[in-house]
């Protein structure tokens, strides 16, 4: 027998993997043996596997193969995750390349494109797992949007709701104005950057005195419902119980006291915009403040934006800064 000078992985590995599959060595049925089961953390169908998947799945494969050698009824359940938001973004990008506008499609038509993407890329991912030699029970392959899994999710939500363990509430969310959907914290990509800091004077109602706040988002001034200072800050002790006039919209709002404000940071005064900042929302709930949302779903300003209504938030930011300067309340940037 002639031994090749170089190892040909494709011939050897494909041959034996096909042999394993043909003889269903990875398949498991319940019996009297001790069960040992791993449900694969399903990779998203948004592309292909990366090195992190390779590492994680290799470790799972080691564990499941060891369990078989120990005589346990080992079952490794494979599958893929629909990753709805990420998948939708990929599908929308693909449609744009084909000159198709998502907004012109019906729900059913868009789902057809989404399923087409899923079948294509989900299949690529599963084949990559096989190339890795993963000893999954392929007869049990699942997709997170399979009818039985979707039904189980709905049943679970109904059960939790009937037990009083979940409820609908008003929450601060991460909003994607392009995809028109909420995002989980894990889906948000944080970027560090240097923005302008605008120092704005708020006049005390009925007095000539002003207090100064600093903000990177002057357009959100239109959503202010209070100005907050630390109760231990002696610089502002005389302002307790007084009101200020919000620039641009001339709304009268209270000066409130809260330990959240850092006396050493900025001016020591904090404008409170409960609709557009997580911390402000928490302060607003503690002090029962009004919530004024100035943005539309597409990130343009709504009617609360007054003269800036219809502008994109970034465009409105620049316009608001110019208007504050024109009014003489922008002390510095």
Describe the structure.
- With 333 residues, the protein is an alpha/beta fold.
- Helix content is 34%, strand content 17%.
- The chain has helices at 9-22, 51-69, 84-97, 107-131, 147-162, 278-286, 313-327; strands spanning 35-39, 73-77, 79-80, 142-143, 174-176, 181-183, 198-204, 210-215, 226-229, 243-246, 251-257, 269-272, 330-332.
- The strands form four sheets. Strands 7, 8, 9, 10, 11, 12 and 13 form a seven-stranded mixed β-sheet that branches. Strands 1-2 form a two-stranded parallel ribbon.
- A hairpin with a 5-residue loop joins strand 7 and strand 8 (210-215).
- Helix 3 crosses helix 4.
- The mean pLDDT is 90.
Features:
single chain, about 325 residues, alpha/beta, Rossmann fold, Isoleucyl-tRNA Synthetase, domain 2, 2 domains, seven-stranded mixed β-sheet, two-stranded parallel sheet, 13 strands, about 35% helix, elongated
């Amino acid at each position: 027998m002639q031994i090749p000078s170089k190892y040909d992985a494709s011939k050897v590995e494909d041959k034996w993997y096909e042999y394993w599959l043909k003889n269903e060595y990875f398949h498991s049925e319940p019996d009297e043996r001790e069960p040992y089961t791993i449900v694969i953390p399903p990779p998203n169908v948004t592309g292909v596997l990366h090195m992190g998947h390779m590492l994680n799945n290799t470790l799972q494969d080691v564990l499941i193969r060891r369990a078989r050698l120990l005589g346990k009824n080992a079952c490794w359940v494979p599958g893929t995750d629909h990753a709805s938001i990420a998948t939708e973004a990929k599908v929308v990008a693909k449609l744009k390349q084909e000159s198709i506008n998502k907004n012109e499609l019906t729900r059913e038509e868009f789902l057809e494109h989404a399923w087409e993407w899923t079948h294509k890329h989900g299949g690529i991912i599963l084949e990559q797992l096989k190339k890795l030699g993963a000893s999954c029970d392929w007869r049990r392959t699942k997709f997170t949007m399979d009818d039985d899994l979707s039904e189980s999710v709905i049943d679970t939500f109904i059960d939790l709701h009937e037990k009083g363990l979940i409820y609908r509430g008003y929450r601060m969310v991460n909003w994607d104005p392009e995809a028109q959907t909420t995002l989980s914290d894990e889906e948000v990509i944080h970027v560090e950057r240097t923005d302008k800091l605008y120092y704005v004077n708020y006049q005390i109602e009925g007095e000539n005195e002003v207090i100064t706040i600093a903000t990177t988002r002057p357009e959100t001034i239109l959503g202010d419902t209070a100005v907050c200072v630390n109760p231990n800050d002696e610089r502002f002790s005389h302002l307790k119980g007084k009101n200020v006039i919000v620039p641009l919209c001339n709304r009268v709002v209270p000066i409130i006291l809260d330990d959240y404000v850092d006396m050493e940071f900025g001016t020591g005064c904090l404008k409170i915009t409960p609709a557009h900042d997580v911390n402000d929302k928490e302060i607003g709930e503690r002090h029962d403040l009004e919530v004024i949302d100035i943005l539309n779903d597409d990130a343009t300003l709504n009617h609360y934006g007054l003269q800036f209504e219809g502008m994109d938030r970034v465009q409105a930011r620049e316009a608001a800064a110019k208007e504050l300067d024109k009014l003489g309340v922008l002390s510095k940037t």
